[in-house]
Design a protein that fits this description.
Helix content is 17%, strand content 39%. The protein is built from 2 helices and 8 strands; from the N terminus they run βαββββαβββ.
Length: 128
């Protein structure tokens, strides 16, 4: 259903899907052989896991909107996610934390906590 669907490489997609379920709460939507899995992220998000042992992980990250960033952070920490930054409120109206998964992919989880005009924090709404 998502318009943009990130594709992330893992050495073992089944292991990755199980870990992402436990730590981040994603669910499996579709399996294709043992080399590709599509996950549901929330009601309308999706992530594809593809098998590769030599894919780079540096330089990119995935942001996912969640209902309760504190509860999500606790779950991720309890299931072995390496937390880069704990839940923090930002002036643009989001509460976020960042973590690294079992393959080194970076994730930011974000909860809207205020409706803030972008001009109030140095942003510019270009196409409302």
């Amino acid at each position: 259903m998502g318009t943009v669907i990130p594709v992330l490489a893992y050495a073992d997609v089944s292991e990755a899907a199980a870990w992402l379920f436990e730590a981040f709460g994603f669910t499996v939507r579709l399996r294709i052989g043992n080399h590709r899995i599509q996950l549901n992220a929330g009601e309308d998000g999706a992530i594809v896991l593809t098998e590769s042992s030599d894919a780079p992980t540096a330089g990119a990250s995935v942001m996912v909107r969640v209902e309760d960033v504190d509860a999500h952070h606790q779950r991720a920490r309890e299931h072995g996610a390496r937390i880069l930054s704990g839940p923090t409120d930002f002036p643009y109206g989001e509460r976020q934390y960042s973590a690294v998964d079992l393959a080194g992919h970076e994730w930011t989880f974000s909860q809207s906590i205020a409706d803030v005009d972008p001009r109030d924090w140095g942003g510019e709404l270009v196409n409302p």
